[in-house]
Amino acid sequence: MDIREIRVEDLNVDRFIGEKTKEIASIVGSGTAVNALSGGVDSSAVTMLAHRALGTRVKTYFVENGIMREGEPQRVVSIFEKLGVPVELVDAKEAFFRALRGVTDPELKRQAITDTFYKDVLARLVRSSGARHLLHGTNYTDVEETVAGIKRQHNILEQLRIDTQKEYGYKVIEPLIELRKTGVRMVAKALGLPKEIYDRPPFPGPALAARVIGEVTSERVEIVRKATKIVEEELAASNAFQYLAVLHEDRVTGIRGGKREFGSQIGVRCFDSTDAVTATPTRLPFETLERLGQRIPAEVHGVVSVTYNVTRKPPTTIEAV
Amino acid sequence: MDIREIRVEDLNVDRFIGEKTKEIASIVGSGTAVNALSGGVDSSAVTMLAHRALGTRVKTYFVENGIMREGEPQRVVSIFEKLGVPVELVDAKEAFFRALRGVTDPELKRQAITDTFYKDVLARLVRSSGARHLLHGTNYTDVEETVAGIKRQHNILEQLRIDTQKEYGYKVIEPLIELRKTGVRMVAKALGLPKEIYDRPPFPGPALAARVIGEVTSERVEIVRKATKIVEEELAASNAFQYLAVLHEDRVTGIRGGKREFGSQIGVRCFDSTDAVTATPTRLPFETLERLGQRIPAEVHGVVSVTYNVTRKPPTTIEAV
């Protein structure tokens, strides 16, 4: 690959922001651009850069795909409203669940989500807006992992030699592609984004679909959404790099009210890491683990068992799917 | 149910042994009996009682079903040889794997194992020996859980109104049916069994088949057998009530040698309990959990992730399947 990484020690944040703002302005020229905001640190930083570079000539959308965390769409839109950046919420839930129906292979799930996002929803938004460019928050680790064949990242297109102009009708601008997460966080902070954005634990492109083993239905997403909320509440103070809940397809035996209940299992994962390339399970206090083991079956319908991952990356990965 | 529990505080071990020995002798009369030894505390205690009551008129078999732990059959036979109790090893692996082929439902697995054991293997052994009675290590908790519909125990027959005389051609004698595990351990100790038997953590009737989610094949049993060996090595010093490894059917993403490996997950469970009715996840040191998380993927082919169960019984159960 011919993209050069900018290491954190070589990153001059202000100069980077200045250059990228100019670059975006020059590429888009007198046209308009579309920007998709997910609320992650990458797309949030891109949103701010695009807003600086293009002002009202960039239209930012938040695509509600049905696989977000609880309250996520409203929360993100309101953060950006406060920063003076208008964001339009697009309800595309049905399109995503339709594309995910019956799909169990993780790569095909990612593919279904990517295709729905780019070919269906965004292509429609770009076409109807008359824009020729789409801004996107691809970072250096995304490129690297995709090239290495570890995991197909949601937001890699041109790296896979996909001609977006031909396939989707727009060109993609990726201003963060030389930075890893730490660099992106520095840029996001300098762009005036609040701590809950620039310091937010990473969240995968395929969102809660990456947290469901087996078919992704709105019912199964709802289970993992509730478990995720509990995990995030309990582990917010852990200072861990990333924490998450996975819904298994496997059923395990449980017992409730003295009767057998063949139920679901939630896998909790929490890692210490600096770069996501290697990661160690966080040594959480046993009280916290027990609280998770108790709260999730008590509060999430059908769950009878909770586990905690104790294997490092490698050989495991941070996300299970 | 009309069986009365003998509580530990009411148990006079010597009197119990004397009475049961007489009872067995009187039921079998001048005939012969067959006894199946699994190496668990229940069947071991029954073996000793039967040997005392009947001497050479009881024939003890150890049925190798292919779903035992590593080295288990040889180990058990040699313990009893030292105690002067002859045990015949019967290789029935093929019959069990044939019966388990394609079966994924836990209850149907138990059923397949029970049927193969009683209707196929034991019925044949009893018939060929001319015996009219089979001794069995059913205990009070087995009866209770089966009646409550929590879990179909492997060794419950007459409680389910199965006429063993009619169905299998023999009558069942269950000398331990009034005792819970603690009482059985006391009896086993008094009968001269070594600590590794009377103090052995419980092991389920369906053996490693209860540790495999999904289809039970010899290959999948081999994975969980290796993981079980590591778990037992690492947790032997934990003083826990029971510890085990479960092989998931779900696949999770891993990474090895820089490449994605879509691999297996092993769930480790370890509980503190006194009666198996309620149980709490043992607060293992994090070093131990990390060693399990490292050793299992390193030593067992295809495993990329290890988890630890953090939910109590109830709502989870000690065994997952």
Question: Any descriptors?
Answer:
9 strands; homodimer; 321 residues; 4-stranded mixed sheet; globular; 5-stranded parallel sheet; alpha/beta
Explain how this protein is built:
The structure is a homodimer of 321-residue chains. The model of chain A has no long low-confidence stretch (mean pLDDT 91). The longest helix of chain A is centred in the middle third of the chain and has 24 residues, at 106-129. Chain A is α/β, with parallel strands linked by helices and 321 residues long. Chain A has helices at residues 13-28, 41-54, 72-82, 93-100, 106-129, 140-148, 164-168, 181-190, 195-198, 218-235, 286-299; strands at residues 33-36, 58-64, 87-91, 133-135, 171-173, 242-256, 259-272, 280-281, 303-309. In chain A, helix 1 (13-28) crosses helix 2. Helix content of chain A is 41%, strand content 19%. Strand 9 of chain A pairs antiparallel with strand 9 of chain B, so a sheet runs across the interface.
Query: What gyration radius of chain A follows from the Cα positions, in whole Å?
Result: 20 Å
Order of helices and strands of chain A: HEHEHEHHEHHEHHHEEEHE
Largest beta-sheet characterization of chain A: 5 strands, parallel
Integer average pLDDT of chain A = 91
Tertiary shape of chain A: globular
Percent in strands of chain A: 15-25%
- Identify the strand order in the major beta sheet of chain A: 3-2-1-4-5
- Greatest chain-chain interface? A-B, 53 and 53 residues
- Distance between the first and last residues' Cα of chain A: 26 Å
Unreliable residue stretches of chain A: none
Number of strands of chain A: 9
Oligomeric state: homodimer
Helix content of chain A: 40-55%
Structural class of chain A: alpha/beta
The number of helical runs of chain A is 11
